[in-house]
Amino acid sequence: MAQGPALLILTALADAPRHGYGILQEVTALSEGRVRLRTGTLYGALDRLQGQGLIQVEREEVVDGRARRFYSLSPAGRAALTDEVAHLRTVVSEAHRRLGAGSEVRFA
């Protein structure tokens, strides 16, 4: 499954289609400012995710003479993200167990 920026990009697309700049903003918000993707990194990741069948182009618009693509999760992308969420919950639960009962873990 996708790790790092790809996981954040898939998560950013989980609730609504977004264009490149919208994805960049959402990734920054999701990571609480810890991850700020560069444009080249974003579009390279989008190409890979599209090639893997995890995202798709939802629509294209022209705004101020420039093409703007909106991306969304494909059904395979939604399934892959769902699987990764389950895996991450298991890892977090195990980390919490190993840290001991006194460690507080909150899920938003």
Automatic annotation (TrEMBL):
Residues 9-82 form the Transcription regulator PadR N-terminal domain. Pfam families: PadR. Signal peptide: none annotated. InterPro entries: Metal_resp_DNA-bind_regulator (IPR052509), Tscrpt_reg_PadR_N (IPR005149), WH-like_DNA-bd_sf (IPR036388), WH_DNA-bd_sf (IPR036390). PANTHER family: PADR-FAMILY TRANSCRIPTIONAL REGULATOR (PTHR33169). This is PadR family transcriptional regulator. The lineage of its organism: Bacteria, Bacillati, Actinomycetota, Actinomycetes, Kitasatosporales.
